[in-house]
Amino acid sequence: MRLPKADIAIIDRAAAMRGRSRTDFMRDAAVRAAEEVVMENTIIRMSQSGFKAFVDAISGPGEPVPGLVEVFKRKAPWES
Fold first, then answer.
1. pTM for this entry
2. Which whole-number Å values give the CA distances from 49 to 1, 38, 43, 54, in the listed order?
């Protein structure tokens, strides 16, 4: 792949910050981008009963998660 020197420089800088080689860094970035595209364009199929169960699960009232409730009660560090 041919890239401008400025692009290579920023890629090398980021790879070094992650402790990776340029090749590893680029491969991981390309695979993540490819997975995102595939997932955005994948049709999810399910039975009518499965779809009803899914809709029922997301339409019902939510249940509090104790750990999250506690986190949201805390003051932010900049508020202390």
1. 0.56
2. 48, 26, 18, 9
Longest CA–CA span in the chain (Å) reads: 55
Residue 2 C-alpha from the chain's centroid? 28
Torsion angle (degrees, nearest 10) of CA 44, 47, 59, 38: 0
CA distance 30 to 23: 10
Residue with tokens 């490819």: 34
User: Token pair for residue 27?
Assistant: 């491969």
> What are the start-end ranges of the E strands in the chain?
none
Question: Contact, 12 vs 24, CB < 8 A?
Answer: no
pLDDT digits (tens, 9 = 90+) for 13-43: 999 999 999 999 999 999 999 999 999 999 9
